[in-house]
Structure formats: C-alpha cells, structure tokens
C-alpha cells in the first residue's frame, strides 16, 4: 500500500487555515470526537490516486434544516454559512480494473487507540473542516488507509487546502447563465497547477454547487478525473457567500 510521504512539520497543523472565514472562532472547549462506526467493509487496497474534496458551505447550510445543532453550529450558526469552501477530506483511490473497487476504506490502524482523533488535532482542524464529527469520520474511513496517525493525515490535507486560491465566488454567483465549465475555468485560473479536466464538480438536483473534487495522481500532482463528470455545459447555481 502506498502511504503519504510527509515531510511537513506537525507544527503546520497548529496554524488553522481560515477556509475563507476570517471570523472563524473555535469553541473554548473542544473534546475528542467519538470514534466513527464503519458503514461499510474494510478494503485495504493499493492507492493509485487521490481526491481532495471541498464542500461549498453556503449550499450545505441552505439545504440542511437543522442548523445550529452540534453538527452544523460552527459552519452555519443557524443563520446561513459562515464559511466559503471548507475541506471535506483527502480521499485515497485505487484502480477499479485491478481490484473491482475504486477506493480503500476503513483501514483500521494499530494500535486501535489511534482510531480516535485527539482533541488538540480536532481543534487545529475546525477552521478548515468545521465539524468534529466529520473530522472523526474522515480519519476513520480515509485517513487510516494513508497515514499512521491522525495528525499526520490532517497535516497533509490541511496543507494542501491552505495552498489553494479561490475565484471570486460572489461575482460568479451573480453571473447570468453560469455553467459548470465557467466554474472549472475560474478555479483553474486561480490555481494554475490544476487544469479544468482535473477539477470535478458535483451539483444538487436543483443545480446548485455542492462540492469541488480535485483529482491527483499518486505523487499528489493534478490528473484528469476518472469516471462520469458533470458536463461543462450544465447550468450551475452558486448559493452566494454570506447568505
């Protein structure tokens, strides 16, 4: 199995990426989230590529009705999104032709105690991934297949997220006849290391932006996304930041 080769200092994790939210304020008390229970089989597969998944918080907050609860309070606050893009996770993939499944998952580490994300690691990630439950889920399902400890996995994913630049989403949201291709091109222009074909876009049934998936090879370099893609011509609605 190919694991992440990290040379970044763990101190990077203590510098929270703001995820386009200069007002992010972590709660005074942060406890280690419960260990996530697996919702599928263990698959220890060789890693051939990765996806860095970003959620568009304004769409998430506009479509989740129980705002202000434990899972959404920091991200949405009960009054719409307090963030722009946030980090969903760094996901390992495998070769479906060789293994019949497209990704490794739930690769429980040893010792089992490392399945829990420590409180200090959770705190350091909350301005990047503003949900303790999601942080715990991403480590248990994806991170355990890639790194020996939570802090190693989250140091890498946070550093990759921190390097991104984002297009003017408020201006794009106002554009008439906006398409998925328009967003791909704007994102690639802001991040020259990515080409439009390496940028996956997921939309809701109503056509609003949900996530961006950045497709990476085994060396974490941009590569064309595999599988069906939302076509460039598809109409796109962006829920405005701050809504």
What does the model show?
This protein has 243 residues and is of the alpha+beta class. The protein has a domain at 51-217: Alpha-Beta Complex (Ribonuclease Rh, Chain A). The protein is 26% helix and 13% strand. The chain contains eight helices and four strands. The chain has helices at residues 57-63, 73-76, 96-99, 119-125, 132-141, 150-162, 169-174, 180-190; strands spanning 49-56, 85-93, 199-203, 209-217. Strands 2-1-4-3 form a four-stranded antiparallel sheet. It is globular. Residues 5-19 have low confidence and may be disordered.
CATH class of one domain: Alpha Beta
Counted by DSSP, the helix tally is: 8
Query: Helix/strand/pairing class, anyone?
Result: alpha+beta
- Describe the main β-sheet briefly: 4 strands, antiparallel
Question: In percent, how much strand structure appears in the residues?
Answer: 5-15%
Rg, nearest Å:
17 Å
The name CATH uses for the topology of one domain is Ribonuclease Rh, Chain A
Give the CATH H-level superfamily of one domain: Ribonuclease T2-like
The share of residues in helices is 25-40%
CATH architecture of one domain: Alpha-Beta Complex
Provide tags for this entry.
Ribonuclease Rh, Chain A; four-stranded antiparallel beta sheet; 243 residues; alpha+beta
How do the helices and strands line up, and which of them pair or pack?
Layout: E1 49-56, H1 57-63, H2 73-76, E2 85-93, H3 96-99, H4 119-125, H5 132-141, H6 150-162, H7 169-174, H8 180-190, E3 199-203, E4 209-217
Antiparallel strand pairs: 1-2, 1-4, 3-4
């Amino acid at each position: 199995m190919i694991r992440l080769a990290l040379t970044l200092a763990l101190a990077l994790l203590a510098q929270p990426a703001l995820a386009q939210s200069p007002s992010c304020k972590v709660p005074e008390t942060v406890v280690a989230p419960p260990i996530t229970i697996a919702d599928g089989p263990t698959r220890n597969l060789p890693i051939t590529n990765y996806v860095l998944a970003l959620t568009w918080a304004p769409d998430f907050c506009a479509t989740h009705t129980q705002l202000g609860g434990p899972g959404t309070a920091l991200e949405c606050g009960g009054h719409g999104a307090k963030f722009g893009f946030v980090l969903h996770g760094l996901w390992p993939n495998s070769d479906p032709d060789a293994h019949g499944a497209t990704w490794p998952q739930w690769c429980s580490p040893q010792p089992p105690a490392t399945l829990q994300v420590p409180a200090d690691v959770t705190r350091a990630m909350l301005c990047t991934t503003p949900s303790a439950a999601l942080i715990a889920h991403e480590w248990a399902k994806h991170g355990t297949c890639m790194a020996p400890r939570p802090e190693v996995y989250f140091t890498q994913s946070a550093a990759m997220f921190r390097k991104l630049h984002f297009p003017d989403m408020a201006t794009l949201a106002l554009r008439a006849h906006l398409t998925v291709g328009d967003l791909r091109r704007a994102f690639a222009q802001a991040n020259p290391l990515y080409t439009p074909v390496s940028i996956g876009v997921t939309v809701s049934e109503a056509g609003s932006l949900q996530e961006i998936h950045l497709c990476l090879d085994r060396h974490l370099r941009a590569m064309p996304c595999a599988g069906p893609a939302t076509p460039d011509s598809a109409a796109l609605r962006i829920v405005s930041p701050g809504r």
